[in-house]
Design goal:
By secondary structure, this protein is of the alpha+beta class. The protein folds into 2 domains: 33-166, 2-Layer Sandwich (Phosphorylase Kinase, domain 1); 172-383, Transferase(Phosphotransferase), domain 1 (Orthogonal Bundle), CATH 1.10.510.10. Helices cover 25% and strands 14% of the residues. The strands form 6 sheets. Strands 3-8-9-6-5-4 form a 6-stranded mixed beta sheet, sandwiched between helices. Strands 10-12-13 form a 3-stranded antiparallel beta sheet. A hairpin with a 2-residue loop joins strand 8 (152-158) and strand 9. Helix 4 packs antiparallel against helix 6 (276-290) and helix 9 (334-347) runs antiparallel to helix 10. The radius of gyration is 20 Å and the shape is globular. Pfam families: PK_Tyr_Ser-Thr (PF07714). Residues 367-380 have a biased composition (Basic and acidic residues). May be involved in plant defense signaling. InterPro entries: Kinase-like_dom_sf, Plant_Ser_Thr_Prot_Kinase, Prot_kinase_dom, Protein_kinase_ATP_BS, Ser-Thr/Tyr_kinase_cat_dom, Ser/Thr_kinase_AS. Keywords: ATP-binding, Cell membrane, Kinase, Membrane, Nucleotide-binding, Serine/threonine-protein kinase, Transferase.
Length: 420
């Protein structure tokens, strides 16, 4: 399959969506987390349905479409959907622009008869960096179809207006469930945590196993979104890159991403490997065990970086017990927890070649999840879904359009690589 850029950067013309995955992906921009809104059936030429629980083509192992199969929205359509981009419809803001909640025309209805609720990400017209992200989202997410990747439903490009439309993820981000505060939201029980990890790993494994490997480059808890059944989906492909050619082990690019999650070889040299994503997954494994953020300057000296602090605890069952998330209240199988900790250590190897493939990670997690000694299932109150997004400690910086306002990891451009 040939790979080439499918967009022209000149405005006031339609994007050429008949091309292939773009080779671009470096964005001189901070990364975004995501905001969400309800979804329902989308008419037009999209194969996707935004309605929760609605039927759609089933590709359990995922597929790469020959061309982006997306609905092209008119600006007027999205202007009406968001009530003229009204201030009280804002779900979040970021470097790309503003995200609004919206409703499509009432003629477009889901099977339950309700209107179609969407999330609309609107580019700041002065942000050329945002244009690159907009382009990357369509180039990658517009062609990648997998149960563990968030669906991009369509886009709009009219004059200087650039917008993206996404599906709704009812439960918001993993980050908010792990680190948010407030009595309205309960902590994730052990079995749900394993389910989320398996889903996220399957999504990342699909990207790595594609004919032309895709390096996600910004894997973190805030970019893992959850549907109504806590199925995990990876979101926000603004920093995604195509993997190296067969003759090379890595690609060299600007160092972009989120401190605390970025692999050490990438930060130091700008060399990006497929297994740089595996390191980020290892960080999320540690966050899932401890309930602590990858990077938190409010912690005592020596404990700001979670991986540096916790690594010595991951290989010893007694030490591990002391740093497990207190919200689990001890309701987890200690043997399985140790296996997750050991897998995290494997993923956090200092050299890319020492880390497992994501296929191996999926297999290990599925084995752990199949154990019969896991704790008794605990129900999670799903009363008011919106309250799940109202917790947090730090101010929100950048979001993508799939979940409402919430706390997130601080994302910014990483320091330049050291000279050789």
């Amino acid at each position: 399959m040939g790979i080439g850029c499918c967009f022209r950067s000149k405005k006031n013309q339609s994007p050429n969506t008949t091309g292939h995955l773009s080779t671009s992906g470096g964005i001189s921009q901070t990364t975004r987390n995501t905001t969400s809104s309800d979804g329902s059936n989308i008419s037009g030429n999209s194969m996707f349905s935004a309605a929760s629980g609605s039927e759609e083509p089933s590709y359990p192992r995922g597929q790469i479409l020959p061309t982006p199969n997306l609905r092209i929205f008119s600006f007027l359509e999205l202007k009406v959907a968001t009530r003229n981009f009204r201030a009280d419809m804002v779900l979040g803001e970021g470097g790309f622009g503003t995200v609004y909640k919206g409703w499509l025309d009432e003629k477009v209805i889901s099977k339950n008869g309700s209107g179609s609720v969407i999330a609309v990400k609107k580019l700041n017209s002065e942000s050329m960096q945002g244009f690159e992200e907009w382009q990357s989202e369509i180039n990658f997410l517009g062609r990648l179809s997998h149960p563990n990747l968030v669906k991009l439903l369509g886009y709009c490009w009219e004059e200087d207006e650039l917008l993206l439309v996404y599906e709704f993820m009812q439960k918001g981000s993993l980050e908010n469930h792990l680190f948010g505060r407030g009595s309205a939201v309960q902590s994730l029980p052990w079995d749900i945590r394993i389910k989320i990890l398996i889903g996220a790993a399957q999504g990342l494994s699909f990207l790595h196993a594609s004919e032309k490997q895709v390096i996600y480059r910004d894997f973190k808890a805030s970019n893992i979104l959850l549907d109504g059944s806590y199925n995990a989906k990876i979101s926000d492909f603004g920093l995604a890159k195509l993997g190296p050619s067969a003759s090379k082990s890595h690609v060299t690019t600007r160092v972009m991403g989120t401190s605390g999650y970025a692999a050490p070889e990438y930060v130091a040299t700008g060399h990006l490997y497929v297994k740089s994503d595996v390191y980020g997954f290892g960080v999320v494994l540690v966050e899932m065990l401890t309930g602590l953020r990858a990077l938190d300057a409010t912690r005592p000296s020596g404990k700001h970086n979670l991986v540096d602090w916790i690594k010595p605890y991951l290989s010893d069952r007694r030490k591990l017990k002391n740093i497990m998330d207190s919200h689990l209240e001890g309701k987890y199988p200690s043997k399985a927890a140790l296996q997750i900790a050991q897998l995290a250590l494997y993923c956090l190897g200092l050299e890319p070649k020492t880390r497992p493939s994501m296929k191996e990670v999926v297999e290990k997690l599925e084995h752990i999840g199949s154990r019969t000694d896991k704790p008794k299932e605990r129900r999670i109150n799903s009363g008011n879904q919106n309250t799940a997004y109202q917790r947090g400690q730090q101010p929100v910086r950048h979001r993508s359009p799939l979940h409402p306002r919430q706390v997130e990891s601080q994302s910014y451009q990483l320091p330049p690589p050291r000279s050789a």
